[in-house]
Specification:
Layout (H helix, E strand, L loop, with lengths): L13 H42 L4 H4 L5 H5 L6 H7 L20 E2 L5 E2 L1 H31 L7 H16 L2 H12 L3 H25 L4 H8 L4 H40 L2 H10 L3 H30 L2 H4 L6
Antiparallel strand pairs: 1-2
Length: 325
């Protein structure tokens, strides 16, 4: 404790002793609660493992030491095979099977100019993510102002808009895509619809929370001079919230790249479908090539997002606190 009061005789006062006793009691109570929580967690974990073992016909614990056997066996003949698969170059191990056939799926523009198959599929996935973010972000931008308490007085309007957003983000993209493929057939269109719908719900919530936390003094000034609701949003609210909107949208773009990859595994097209086929057919070189391409893409999107945020917000927002660090 920073300061302890003393009585004139030099001892600790009764008030300080009482406060210190309460403090020690709170510490003991917190430790007891922490121990109880850890014990409950250990019990739940043990029961879960026991259930997994029973559901796996008693083989769960027996097979646990062999958990990494698949990764040890799932290796290409040599590291260069990964890059041959990535850029559609002929393999010296070609035996007529699809495992070493890296050239038949090239996307030719001319007789000699082509785009490697996996890079083309990755472009499809990134395009799905970008189009979905534009559609979902645009609709979320329009809806968020009607969901904000400080801009909409009608409770019914806020209630309806917020419930719509909750419904749209309640289901994962892969579930929505699975339903839409039965209607729109297999392909990128179903993936775009699925990711867009989830993006509306997710970004809409983030957007209207930013709006509700904005400073209302500019809005009060505009209302005092007779500005309309649209003018208050345009000149009083947008300048404050736009940098956060851009930041959240860029973050959502990164998330949508990963979501589009997963959706590809259920028929959404793109690199996800190629990944599912390669790993299912035991094609190690192709699988690792796709993993590397995905990692490079996510890193590139993240770096581009950071650069764009700096251009829009300014470097001063990123310099705060750097000296202290």
């Amino acid at each position: 404790m920073a300061h302890i009061a003393h009585d004139p005789a030099g001892g600790i006062s009764d008030a300080t002793r009482t406060v210190y006793g309460h403090y020690r009691q709170q510490i003991r109570t917190r430790r007891v609660y922490s121990i109880i929580a850890l014990v409950v967690f250990a019990i739940v974990l043990a029961l879960s493992l026991n259930f997994a073992n029973a559901a796996n016909s008693g083989k769960f614990f027996e097979r646990l030491p062999y958990l990494l056997d698949f990764l040890r066996s799932f290796v290409p003949n040599d590291p260069l095979e990964i890059f041959r698969a990535m850029f559609d170059q002929p393999s010296p191990y070609a035996d007529g099977s699809m495992k070493y056939d890296f050239t038949s799926q090239r996307m030719y523009f001319t007789d000699t100019l082509y785009v490697p198959h996996f890079i083309y599929e990755l472009m499809v996935t990134v395009n799905i993510a970008i189009v979905s973010t534009i559609i979902g972000g645009g609709l979320a931008f329009c809806l968020c102002f009607f969901a904000a308490t400080n801009l909409v007085g009608a409770g019914a309007v806020r209630f309806v808009v917020r419930r719509i957003m909750e419904i749209l983000r309640a289901f994962p993209e892969i579930v929505i895509a699975g339903l839409l493929t039965a209607i729109l057939s297999i392909g990128p269109i179903a993936a775009i619809f699925a990711v867009s719908l989830h993006t509306i719900g997710a970004l809409g919530k983030l957007f209207f929370e930013v709006v509700e936390n904005a400073d209302m003094k500019p809005d009060e000034g505009l209302r005092a001079v007779g500005a309309t609701w649209l003018e208050r949003v345009r000149f009083g609210m947008l300048p404050q919230v736009l940098p956060n909107f851009v930041s959240y949208t860029l973050l959502r773009t990164e998330i949508n790249v990963r979501a589009s990859t997963i959706i590809g595994a259920v028929g959404g097209g793109g690199i996800g479908e190629a990944f599912r086929l390669s790993i299912g057919n035991n094609q190690a070189a192709k699988t690792y090539a796709i993993i590397i391409l995905l990692l490079v893409t996510i890193i590139a999107v993240d770096q581009f997002s950071g650069w764009l945020r700096r251009r829009l917000v300014g470097n001063q927002a990123f310099e705060f606190g750097r000296g202290a660090a």
